[in-house]
Amino acid sequence: MPDIDFDRVIAIAEAGGALAMRQWTLGRKESNIWEKSPGQIVSDADLAVDRFLRGELEKLVPVAGWLSEETHIDHSGAGDELTWVVDPIDGTKDYVAGKTGWCVSVALVQNEAPVFGVLVAPAMHETWVGRAGQSATVNGRALVATRRDQYEGCRIPAESLPPEMNLTAVPKPNSIALRMAMVADDRADVVASTRWGHEWDIAAAHVIAAEAGASVTNALGETLVYNGTHGKALGVLCCSRNLYDEAVQRIGKYVSENGASH
User: DSSP for the chain?
Assistant: First the structure.
């Protein structure tokens, strides 16, 4: 890997967050949005932040490929040793609704695994950083992931949960990256999705949560592989290491009975 100024990467991501904040106001709905596909919304800010990040990050590391939510069709990074995997605004639904649960997500992937990740959540005044084999922090504070060992009563980011599940709902940002970050900071115990998602949603959060001590795999407990030609992954499981085996069993049973969603 070339010598990379990761402090500069963080600064670029924070500048992207500041750019997004120019069009965001707490409680105000954004009107200039459209659907790029059924149920998938995009705003001017998504595209502006994407352009900014791509320009700055490609200048910083010219040899790295590029894969992002807004410019993923070209798959210019697929197969490259180093690739930026980016979601300019993860949690767009919260962003356009004037809610705080969104972030700028930037990951550097090397040989199919994320080695650096930064989440900038300017509306929440938080910057999350993780580097493989080193550390994970939020606003400079070291992260220690949840260590809960009992599934019943565990904290799940959710708007509500059926009482019979015997689980505890905690605030749910629209951004799945921020939900994974909650596990990294012992604010939640399990985050799981069984839908076919995209790697730019989770790449940065993956390295942050893993370095904090959480288990991170796909929904079936298999290794997540990044920088593929399709940019998709079968869900994600991010949880306490002590809950991992039980979570995999529960999710596997659910998928076998209901299938994965799209």
Answer: -----HHHHHHHHHHHHHHHHTT--TTPPP-SEEEEETTEEEEHHHHHHHHHHHHHHHHH-TT-EEEESSS-TT-TTTT-SEEEEEEEEETHHHHHTT-S--EEEEEEEETTEEEEEEEEEGGGTEEEEEETTTEEEETTEEP--------TT-EEE-S---GGG--EEE---S-HHHHHHHHHTTS-SEEEEEEEEEHHHHHHHHHHHHHHT-EEE-TTSPPP--S-SS-EEEEEEEE-TTTHHHHHHHHHHHHHHH--B-
Q: Token pair for residue 53?
A: 């990040």
Tally of CB atoms within 10 A around 220: 15
CA dihedral (177, 179, 45, 124) positive or negative: negative
Residues near 199 by beta carbon (within 8 Å), at least 6 away in sequence: 67, 85, 224, 226, 227, 228, 231, 232, 233
Out of 76-80, 139-143, 188-192, 225-229, least confident range: 76-80
Residues in the chain: 262
Half-sphere exposure at residue 66, Cβ-oriented, CA atoms within 13 angstroms: 20
User: At residue 222, what is the residue type?
Assistant: E
Q: Which tokens in the block code for residue 96?
A: 């356009």
pTM: 0.94
Q: How far apart are CA 219 and CA 197, in angstroms?
A: 11
| Cα–Cα distance, 181 to 205 (Å, whole number) | 6
Q: How confident is the model at residue 39 (pLDDT cuts 50, 70, 90)?
A: low
